Automatic annotation (TrEMBL):
<feature type="domain" description="Histidine kinase">
    <location>
        <begin position="20"/>
        <end position="243"/>
    </location>
</feature>
<protein>
    <recommendedName>
        <fullName>histidine kinase</fullName>
    </recommendedName>
</protein>
Amino acid sequence: AEEQLRQAQKMEALGQFAGSMAHDFNNFLMVIRGNADAVLADLPADDAAREALGDIVAAADRAEGLTRQILAFSRRQVLRPARVELSAAVPAIQRLLEQAVGPQVRLEIRLCPDAGGIRADATQLSQLLINLAVNARDAMPDGGTLTIETTAVTLTRGTPHVHGVVPPGTYSMLTVRDTGVGMSEATLARIFEPFFTTKPRGRGTGLGLATVYGIVQQSGGHLTVASRPGEGTTFVIYFPQLAPEPAPPADPAGAPTTAGGH
Ligand code: ADP
């Protein structure tokens, strides 16, 4: 728990720092891009400087994409946690997921109708799924299968994992599995660190899984990962399952939710 707190504090500080940097940086990028665009528009079609200016615009575009990712990571999002049926959340963004993995990767979705309801912010939940899908795509450059599964599970005893222990309880479980390159133990140990990436410059920010980690924390869930080089990677997220009946709206805000004993 102390390690988790330290991680959360580290993320908070890094998030604020990165956010203000990204914001200022973006202003400069807009000046560079805007001026390059304006000059380019005035140049005759055969001007020798067109290619160089085109490169400037393209580089500024990529850099802007990067700052947008950093801003998304650090933004003080207004969270609207609400009851979400886990098995309804996945198909709701199926098209986005398909776009994230691209045509090379087969997307297999298996939904359990009884996976149950969880308390989460819908936008954060989509972000979590998309971050995992993008990583899976990157891990399968020659194609493969991304499986997203929902189910319900009751753990009667704490289950230890690489990154902590899942305490006993009833959970709505989300499994995200790829048939990609997998990870070494050394990589696995560091994947949730903000800015840790093994991807080439310009491709990875190292913020994807740190964000996923933060989202799972905020929904009171637990995140486990298993991976072997050459054999793919499986992320399992345990969300505390809500009681079957939605709480009446008159419930005092912030009242603790009890997991259903069914
Ligand atoms: P980024 O994707 O920008 O590198 P992440 O925090 O999302 O940042 O991931 C950190 C690192 O974890 C990646 O660079 C990669 O080495 C590893 N990783 C994450 N997901 C997977 C996966 N599905 N398969 C293999 N390696 C992965």
